[in-house]
Specification:
Layout: H1 4-45, H2 47-69, H3 82-93, H4 112-123
Amino acid sequence: KVYPAAIAKTQKIWTAYLDSIMKVGQMQILRRQITNELNYSCRFDSKHLAAALENLNKAILADIEAHYQNPSLPYPKEDNTLLYEITAYLEAAGIHNPLNKIYITTKRLPYFPAVNFLFLISQFPKLQYNRNLGIV
């Protein structure tokens, strides 16, 4: 037997959850747009700086990757500020992926991915593709 009060309560929870998910999604889109604008402005205003930062970033990443493939190669020490300083410059120039940045961590919740998957499937019929924006 299905109780109407339980259904109404469940719908309220899913509505609040949908609002939270949509806010996070909108913030992610804004972060991506701000990064793209910073990157465009950096390339337009100072193409040499943008190219130098990209090459330095690729070189550092190649050195770190080489270290992990062969641990006898050097790796930047903890007290070396190069990685922290270059990160600040890359973020200011928009040469990074804001969606890969982790701000907080939480304890792993059991069945959270499955609940999110089922929730997403239930919400797909409500979403519409907007060709002008290129986003859902």
